[in-house]
Amino acid sequence: MKKATKHLVFIIILGVILGAGIPITYVYFFKTSTAPPGPVHPAHVRIYVNSTIYTSLSTEISQYSQDIIDQGYTVETVNWSNNNVTVLRNDLINASIQTQGLEGAVLIGDLPSAMMQYFDIPWGVWRTYPIDLYLTDLDGQWVDIDQADDLFDAHNNGTGDIYPEIWVGRICPESLNNTNHLSAYQNYFARNHAYRIGQLSRPHSQLVYIDDDWATTQQLVDEWLGDMTAYNNLTSVSLPTTTTTAADYLNRLTHSYEFIHIFVHSWPYEHMFGPGGFGAEGKVTYTNILNANTQALFYNLFACSAANFEYQNNLGTQYLFSNNTLTVVGSSKIGGMTMNSYFYTPLSQGKVFGEAMRLWYWNPLHGPSDPNSMGMTILGDPLLTILM
């Protein structure tokens, strides 16, 4: 693919918009985009299972593999023991150039992740975050200026472009210290199978919960809601008609929605309601999520760092292994999903979560060249759809 001029992006991410703190991110990139290539048919999927749990989950993995085959995919299960993320990426690259191609991968268990860094100017420190884009952009180049730190500093076209060729999703409860991990895996795959065969369902509906700083005007609220293109049955909770608080949100988690999309200041352990990200209108912690009788099947968390799966007891993982949840979309760093129609419209067409995320990334207006997008990840099964 032809390379464009190299740019240095210097972006100040305002904490009042996207989360507490005002980090400054330096990212080099080539901004080049064409229509994303489609999957090979029949599409091929690889399931990587950490070798420490491979045997104990053999029954669940066998059923899960058959469920994916029943979707029309070909499947290869890999017993994986290497903790080097570059080795994992190279394995994905090798799989993608085989005859059957590769549409995506499911990572089950504690499998390696790439780490990227940015400089947080207000606090005067470098911050790091896991970046699964490293595993999905198979022809881009990832630059580690100081190779002793194992932290990526730059992302550019390399031999291709900066956009993802495949998708990945992670199913791993092992960052949680408040649950039995084997039971968490088993319960997750049991409800996953139940959903696939029609024994777990919710009314086809979505709750969009927009906290204060994302609802400063009705026009802004209308713009967010206009991007929720997968649901006609949509409940909006935002100013000025409703006061958004931690207590109100927790109560609504017990209602029977299929999908919840929340906009709220956060860090890995807490949602902080109210303006400015200080929690003046209450906080929802990972313990609150653990103890709540959550009912939704899917979540999109516009909540800074809530899906940073490297943190113990992070919110994204807590959502995923609480009650009925199947898939969580969120960011591992400051930022979140914008221009949501590029994600929800593919979902409304029956595409799986992984492919919807991949197509969303191919929008050059906010894609991998935007530091706010680079931490987006899928926790849970990327092969589910909202139209079963």
What would your notes on this structure say?
- This protein is α/β, with parallel strands linked by helices and 388 residues long.
- The chain has a domain at 178-380: Rossmann fold.
- The protein has helices at 15-18, 58-70, 85-96, 133-136, 181-196, 218-226, 246-252, 286-291, 315-320, 341-348, 353-361; strands spanning 7-12, 24-29, 44-50, 74-80, 104-108, 115-120, 125-130, 141-143, 154-156, 167-171, 206-210, 234-238, 259-263, 265-267, 270-272, 283-285, 298-302, 327-331, 376-380.
- The strands form six sheets. Strands 12-11-13-17-18-19 form a six-stranded mixed sheet. Strands 4-3-5-10 form a four-stranded parallel sheet.
- Helix 2 (58-70) runs parallel beside helix 5 (181-196) and helix 10 packs antiparallel against helix 11.
- Residues 1-33 have low confidence and may be disordered.
